[in-house]
From TrEMBL:
The lineage of its organism: Bacteria, Pseudomonadati, Pseudomonadota, Alphaproteobacteria, Rhodobacterales. It comes from Rhodalgimonas zhirmunskyi. Transmembrane segments: none annotated. Coiled coil: none annotated. This is Kynureninase. Catalyzes the cleavage of L-kynurenine (L-Kyn) and L-3-hydroxykynurenine (L-3OHKyn) into anthranilic acid (AA) and 3-hydroxyanthranilic acid (3-OHAA), respectively. Belongs to the kynureninase family.
Amino acid sequence: MTASAQTASAQTDFAHTKQLFHLPEGVIYLDGNSLGPLPLAAPIKMQTTMRDEWGEMLITGWNKAGWMAQPTRVGDRIARLIGAEDGHVVIGDTLSIKVYQALASALELNPDRKVILSDSGNFPTDLYMAEGLIKSLGQGHELRIVAPEEVEDAITEEVAVTLITEVDYRTGRLHDMKALTEKAHAVGALTIWDLAHSAGALPVDLAGVNADFAVGCTYKYLNGGPGAPAFIYVAPRHADKVEPALSGWLGHDAPFEFERSYRPGPGIERMRVGTPPVLALSALESALDIWDMTTMQAIREKSQALTALFIEEVETRCPMLTLASPRDAAKRGSQVSFRFPDGYAAMQALIARGVIGDFRAPDIMRFGFTPLYIDEGDVTRAAAILEEVMTTRAWDAPEYKARSRVT
């Protein structure tokens, strides 16, 4: 942890952090839960990396600029945001790859069980990766999917591993990580936590709850940029036992010995697969500098206040919308979702007026709240613009009903 992170007070100056992002004039950005905005320092950092490192050092940058150590160095910076031990988070590749790695490793650690337990609120890629892994293993594994509120009761002695996204991507519903992990361990199951909508949104305590594996992305709340690499956490008790299903060159114990057979590297190093995306990691590092100015508790307290204000404003102004998120702030992440039959068109009309959220099928209008760059004034203005869209039926226009590829 950096010195600035250690001294960051609970009373973060969010007015200052807001000035550290590029926010287009006239836009209220409530979609940082899907793609975080650009930190102003990121282009400068990338220019330095490209010109002074790639440009001047060429291939020697792997040693001179420390490129090869980036995945674990940046992993340690993310570790403090998710309550992980130093040296047990590595970054690189995509979230789908990291889900596959964690799931394959968990199944190998629990070979006598065949059930992978997930819930119907999980993000589809997690389920797709589980289906693909089951098919390729061909050992009779089962992906068992239950309703989110039924997960705890469904954790039985048949279960090898739970594959759960802590915050539901549609509604923001928050699972109880501690309780579910304890239940899993009590019956001999392992846990994988997907933190895609948790990392940077709310305090996470992986070490404290004794989690086994966790994965997450960095382009949402962590503001790493489109396609920014994902991370994986492996608990210390498993780190030297797991046998990576994706045995990439850089996960080898001595990659530059160029041995013909794979030997896993020590600890979290073995979960590396491909070449580090140096430029993307450099942009992410500039974003993480902002995180060193705050604490996750300060972020959580402010985001709960912002989401509560938005719910109050929208329900007062727009009775035709139905709250889809938990009303209790302690039971939701840092997003608020409302249901509306023509939610897609309504969101497009809203975006056309400078309030950017997003839509999730079949009828969810989704809004993310990040205190680093969203304040109370943004919330009340956004609610007022939403009221205008809804009460005038501005959404009921042909141009807002044509579906784009990305919703």
